[in-house]
TrEMBL record:
<dbReference type="InterPro" id="IPR011051">
    <property type="entry name" value="RmlC_Cupin_sf"/>
</dbReference>
<keyword id="KW-0659">Purine metabolism</keyword>
<dbReference type="GO" id="GO:0000256">
    <property type="term" value="P:allantoin catabolic process"/>
</dbReference>
<dbReference type="GO" id="GO:0050385">
    <property type="term" value="F:ureidoglycolate lyase activity"/>
</dbReference>
<keyword id="KW-0456">Lyase</keyword>
<protein>
    <submittedName>
        <fullName>Ureidoglycolate lyase</fullName>
    </submittedName>
</protein>
<dbReference type="InterPro" id="IPR047233">
    <property type="entry name" value="UAH_cupin"/>
</dbReference>
<dbReference type="InterPro" id="IPR007247">
    <property type="entry name" value="Ureidogly_lyase"/>
</dbReference>
<dbReference type="Pfam" id="PF04115">
    <property type="entry name" value="Ureidogly_lyase"/>
</dbReference>
<dbReference type="GO" id="GO:0004848">
    <property type="term" value="F:ureidoglycolate hydrolase activity"/>
</dbReference>
<dbReference type="InterPro" id="IPR024060">
    <property type="entry name" value="Ureidoglycolate_lyase_dom_sf"/>
</dbReference>
<comment type="subunit">
    <text>Homodimer.</text>
</comment>
<dbReference type="GO" id="GO:0006144">
    <property type="term" value="P:purine nucleobase metabolic process"/>
</dbReference>
Length: 175
């Protein structure tokens, strides 16, 4: 009887979430980034515009604003799968100051373990995954919490999620 040996654990390096490094996968959403900025409301507020390229209009889609309530995931964490949405982008913004992990791979065929990258989103940061970008489902840390999510609704929205398994690749995120 032949058994297939499982590959050794592959540990991802956790990188800080910075806009230039994340650009191949989408947008970092955070106040203070260079861009359109102005004071509003009689000087009592600052407005930071155009922080993400929302892409929801393909095949009759429309933007949908939701709240995801995420439970924290313990680390170390074995990654089970990544997913992608070909018809639209998907933005995640924490509704309170919290950290979360962002695991991504480039658009294209199902990614290999070597293509995966892991970013730590710090307090005050969100992400917008570009259409077709492979990403792990939300990885909330600490106490978990609520995330404002903007993604695609309308025709075909429920069918616009392709999954790619990772268990055989034995990929892990460290503590």
């Amino acid at each position: 009887m032949t058994t297939t040996a499982r590959p050794p654990r592959r540990w991802l390096t956790v990188e800080p979430l910075e806009a230039p490094a994340f650009l191949p996968f989408g947008d970092v959403i955070e106040a203070g980034r260079p861009g359109k900025h102005r004071t509003i409301n009689e000087g009592f507020a600052e407005r930071f515009d155009d922080l993400a390229r929302l892409d929801t209009g393909r095949q009759g889609g429309r933007p949908v604003v939701s709240v995801f309530r995420a439970r924290p995931r313990p680390l170390p964490l074995q990654l089970r799968l990544v997913e992608r949405h070909l018809l639209g982008s998907q933005a995640f913004v924490p509704m309170r100051s919290q950290r979360f992990l962002v695991v991504v791979a480039p658009a294209g065929p199902g990614p290999s373990a070597a293509q995966l990258r892991c970013f730590m989103a710090g307090p005050g940061q969100g992400v917008n995954y570009a259409a077709g970008t492979w990403h792990h489902p939300l990885i909330a840390l600490d106490q978990g919490g609520d995330f404002l999510v903007v993604d695609r609704g309308g025709p075909l929205a429920a069918d616009d999620c392709e999954e790619h398994p990772l268990l055989d690749a034995n990929v892990w995120v460290p503590e």
